Amino acid sequence: xxxxxxxxxxxxxxxxxxxxxxxxxxxxxxxxxxxxxxxxxxxxxxxxxxxxxxxxxxxxxxxxxxxxxxxxxxxxxxxxxxxxxxxxxxxxxxxxxxxxxxxxxxxxxxxxxxxxxxxxxxxxxxxxxxxxxxxxxxxxxxxxxxxxxxxxxxxxxxxxxxxxxxxxxxxxxxxxxxxxxxxxxxxxxxxxxxxxxxxxxxxxxxxxxxxxxxxxxxxxxxxxxxxxxxxxxxxxxxxxxxxxxxxxxxxxxxxxxxxxxxxxxxxxxxxxxxxxxxxxxxxxxxxxxxxxxxxxxxxxxxxxxxxxxxxxxxxxxxxxxxxxxxxxxxxxxxxxxxxxxxxxxxxxxxxxxxxxxxxxxxxxxxxxxxxxxxxxxxxxxxxxxxxxxxxxxxxxxxxxxxxxxxxxxxxxxxxxxxx
Length: 419
Description:
This protein has 419 residues and is mainly beta. It is 6% helix and 32% strand.
């Protein structure tokens, strides 16, 4: 064969290989858009779009950093899972959040509860995971025998399970989720099995068809949960449990959160606002419950740790049915200095812009609503600040960033008055 023919043949081979799908390789897209399937690590650069065409895995000992403004576009046919065996830092900003999403074409009312891709699944070898200024939407697909998570024995390790949008399972790991939005999800927004944890300044809405919590904690968790808004979860805003065989005992400190209309779309014993089970230890302060189903409810068969503390929580019910089921009984918990009336319409928190007569079964969120408190709100000045958080001195990450759980406020709920 002549030399120029050999050269042309080599060129054709190179071009053919370049057009093949990238699989099982490290992807380090530091400057350009890209697509990925298989193993990934490195940096996804600011403002880029990464098309995920199949399950991706961050290998143990490796890290993927996602910079601000990146769009992670999930293939709705492959319904990919993002499996983290190493570390993930998704570092968006208020102006340029990171989006884990699908093509706009699929964002229809018939798909408002997602199920269009898997979720972010961090296994026991994931040491650190940060989601900061992230929008995570339309996840929660159902596992099959072919799912990477099933093959690797992750989450519930079997076919037929609806995935949470975020799963974390390292009792010795570190997890920070802040300034983020979880929306349009099939079931649980998060399912956390251990770790040093901060959940702060997040928003959860339009989640859960027949079940699912906003934040679901199992054994091994030491978590500070603050300044989160949870709207109309199918089940609870917070499910706090010591179920499992991990140490330490789960101990949750939840303060200055606002919960609205939670629990009504799952009218069972566990459908509510905050559910305590299986000897969990929980301290609950300055939380605002507006038209939620129940307030704080315990599992009488395995009640919470006796050291748990509840104080200065605020309850509002538009109608008498809602008010009646707030009243402390054997399984409904009342706290010190809680504001709980037995009269419908009492204790109006005076939100800046939210119709308090909105149907409690409504799952659709209006982004024009404003849950800040008006200047004449009676919930201002009713919170306490003299308690200790787990991570008030900070969680230090390997990338050099320290995350501190926010200080509590003297107002009740996630938002004070507008500045």
